[in-house]
Amino acid sequence: MPTPTAVAGAPDWYAPTRISLGIRVGDLVFTSGQAPVDDSGSTVAPGDFAAQARQAMAHVADVLTRAGSGPERLVKVTVFVTDIAHQDLFAAVRDEWYPTPFPAESFVQVAALADPRWLVEIEAIGAVG
User: Fold this and answer.
1) Alpha helices in the chain (DSSP H)
2) What share of the chain is helix, strand, coil (3-state, %, to 5)?
3) What is the pLDDT of residues 84-102, one digit of tens each?
4) pLDDT by residue (tens digit) across 103-118?
5) 6 φ, ψ to 5°?
6) How do strand 74-81 and strand 104-109 relate by DSSP bridges?
7) Would you call 36 exposed, middle or buried from its count of C-beta atoms within 10 A (0-12, 13-18, 19+)?
8) Which of 100, 101, 107 is nearest to 124 (CA)?
9) Would you say the pTM of this structure is higher than 0.90?
10) Contact indicator for 110, 80 with CB cutoff of 8 Å
11) CA-CA distance, 54 to 122, in Å (whole number)?
């Protein structure tokens, strides 16, 4: 089995929590849930789902790229939302990021995310090579 390698960021606001932004194992990269935060860890665009989804996807793209993958190599995306009614809004954001062939996706409503101002959190798997 290939050795897992942590993907770090600069800044890496996950480091104090003892969580990796992502893990690369062989030809796959697994991201942690990426939140709608800026580089200081502050929530962006409270109340604006589309802006938060774009920010979270930008973080997904950054983690994948740091590991030798990228948004064009997405294979699986899991989107956690606090309101399933945002599905149509996410579809528009998805069109800005998803490559062809389209990745598999799960769109899941949850009772809450780690910060009550977050409307979305996104995790993904990307291919390398």
Assistant:
1) 49-66, 87-97
2) 30, 30, 45
3) 999 999 999 999 999 889 9
4) 999 999 999 999 999 9
5) -70, 145
6) parallel
7) buried
8) 107
9) yes
10) yes
11) 10
